[in-house]
Amino acid sequence: MNVLKTIKNSGVKHHRRALLGKTSALGASWLAAPLLAGSMASAAHAQAGWPTKPVRMVIAFPPGGPTDIVSRIIASELARLLGQQVVVENRPGAGGNLGAEQVARAAADGYTIFYNTSAITIAPALYSKLNYDPLKDFAAVGLAATVPLVLVINPQVPAKNLREFVDWAKARKGQINFGSSGAGTITHLAAAQLAKDAGFSATHVPYKGSAPGMLDLASGQVQFMVDTINSTLPMIRDGRLRALAVATSKRSSVLPELPTIAESLIPGFEMSAWQGIVVPNGTPASIISR
Q: Band of the pLDDT at 183, cuts 50, 70, 90?
């Protein structure tokens, strides 16, 4: 119940349009997993005999993080409506690439789906060689959500607002670290862009997901992160992390006291994450669409 309350109050924006520029076949949202499941059930009737065995949902991040939590809620609803088990398989690592590679090589039979994030479209710009092509190897199912990002710091850092934090970071002359949910993820790029725009240096420490990164942030192993608001909210509220600003264009209704990065210091700064579902290219259209 606490998990569901966290998601409900996270400020996540829900979408029923497609990701990667395609028409959405399976309308979904974090709070409306039954909608997604209902669409999948409709597709099941369209594809004779599907599903006759458990469906695998691959997630490219470790257990316990926000993406993992949502994928399991969706998997539970899918299983209930499909009458088949939907098994969540965590494949963290390489900024989401390990999970993406696994799904790209999977049979296009509707028994493997990929709950992924912004990382899948960022990867081609970061890696000279990938073992998958996000546009050619996957068929878009639907955009699930866009997720606000928030700058959080270790409470021992002597800063109460963004300007004080930037002044402190500059004085450290590169002797600070920032964590992310993985190299090439939106959390990595957002923090790196913030440092660049604000004019200070910091060393990137990638983790296999947000959860281990935030634990190290709370213990002082890294000094700041820019991560999703739903991921950081519990630790902000219990005082283990200090939130300074949101990366959205407008203030968040969840943390209305926080200014935006744009209004605080860097005009025009705006970044957010998204989550969505794809399947291996070649998956029957009768399964993908209603």
A: confident
DSSP letters, 226-267, are EEEHHHHHHHHHTTSSEEEEE-SSS--SSSTTSPBHHHHT-T
To the question of domain 148-273 being in CATH 3.40.190.10, the answer is yes
For residue 142, the SS3 value is strand
29: CB partners within 8 A, 6+ apart: 12, 14, 15, 16, 35, 36, 144, 145
Closest to 113 measured CA to CA, from 274, 273, 281 = 281
Q: Domain spans of the chain?
A: 2-146+274-288, 148-273
What is the C-alpha separation between 109 and 286, in angstroms, rounded? 11
pTM given for the model? 0.66
Fold held by 2-146+274-288? D-Maltodextrin-Binding Protein; domain 2 (3.40.190)
Across the chain, what does the average pLDDT equal? 83
Closest CA to 118 of 9, 250, 285, 276: 276
Name residue 145's amino acid: A
Structure tokens at 234: 């519990």
What is the arithmetic mean of pLDDT over 48-76? 86
